[in-house]
Amino acid sequence: MYRYHILSQLKKYAGRDRLRFHMPGHKGAGAFARVFPGARLDVTELSFSDDLQSPAGVIAAAERDIAEIVGAKRAFIVTDGSSCGVMACVYAASRFGSKLIVPRNSHKSVFNACRIFGVEPVIVQGETMAGTLLPPDPELIKKLVVNDVNIAGMIITSPDYYGNIAPLDDYAAVLRPQGRKLFCDGAHGAHLAVGENRAGYCGAYADMWVDGAHKTLPALTQGAYVCVNDQSLLGVAAEALDMLRTTSPSYPVMASVEYGVKYYKNHPELYARARSAAAAFKSSLSAFTFYPSADWAKLAVDFKPLGVSPDVVRERLEKKGIYAEMSDGRHLLFYLSPATTKGWLERLAVALIEVADNKKLRGTYKDVPLTLPQTARTYSYLYALRAPFEWVPVKDSAGKMCAGNAGVTPPCLPVVIAGEIISEQAVRLLSCGRGTFGITDGMIKVVKR
Prior knowledge:
Layout: H1 5-14, H2 30-35, H3 58-70, E1 74-78, H4 82-94, E2 99-103, H5 108-117, E3 120-124, E4 128-129, E5 132-133, H6 138-147, E6 151-157, H7 168-175, E7 181-186, E8 208-211, H8 213-216, E9 224-228, H9 234-244, H10 251-266, H11 268-283, E10 289-290, E11 298-302, H12 310-319, E12 326-327, E13 331-335, H13 342-357, H14 381-386, E14 389-393, E15 406-408, E16 413-416, H15 424-432, E17 436-437, E18 439-440, E19 443-447
Parallel strand pairs: 2-3, 2-6, 6-7, 7-8
Antiparallel strand pairs: 1-9, 4-5, 8-9, 10-11, 11-13, 12-13, 14-19, 15-16, 15-17, 18-19
Helix pairs in contact: 1-10, 3-10, 4-5, 4-9, 6-7, 10-11, 11-13
């Protein structure tokens, strides 16, 4: 059994009355502590609590254990979310080349990091399945790296929001003989590290990667960790995180990251129980079409075959107290974790069957493109970001070159990327998205003519 080093130390301190002449300002006392019971665990760098910037005590012990569990040479706890880890990966890549292969369906943080660190993304696009993008063909990656010595490597999301797991073994076999690096945004797959044989886990192949502990493990939001397996990346990874992580990390978040990684390692039967419940749930709903996910924790129901709008279904479910992760206009995604119970899934199954039996909902589905054809690029990404620009209404932007990135959230993927010509399809997608980024008051930034 793995010990919870950070949490144990925090509990010792919180278990007695202390005169807290240190940060944070709530002091773990008074009205604040009554409203936020966890406040007593919220401390700063003290003699017993270690320091994330130069760990030598309980944080160092926690990071060593995490590395051992996930199979890494080194693990770094992050309290700034997976985006901080993605930034660190792109910074590390920038030390080895001026370009980085980036699949089109990468998180906005990848493109933001390329902008910050002056890395030109070589944008690639895979085939589609049920309207969603798949990982690109390894042969395409091979062709790119063989013909361009400036490419540092590739960063890939695996698994993605829909549970697609990239062919990481094939990518590694292509990149390593060419001396290139494989970076992975594994934000949605931390649970795979504690599953049977770590099947599908990006850490089995990546040189450097980030896991979003808070997404699929029992950890507080923003809790993540960055891992390294390539010895040549250890120093640059530490350098990146020294620049990017906050100097005031949350101790409860750090403790929860360690707890989240270790909990299902300590209790594998609970992990197996949740996975079994997810399989039984899918088997019980023969009237529904599920996206063919390779990750058991992603259940995306395809409402196109039923002719029912997933947005309407989401509203119906929320009235019953059931909340999905997101609707993309075709699928309703139910995001599971090892903490998901059989009882929860049984309630969801009953609610979905009621929806399927409701004939009044038939015909509410409207076909919206989830992905766009790859656009020919006239100017580079970095050039478009530096070019003179102007703001125009999204509805009038078709045919203009985008001067930034704009997309829909969730899942925080760009619909149009700097340097691309905005299409009518892109305008439609950006106009109907519930949440967007890169758009201000209905205006989008374009290269000025």
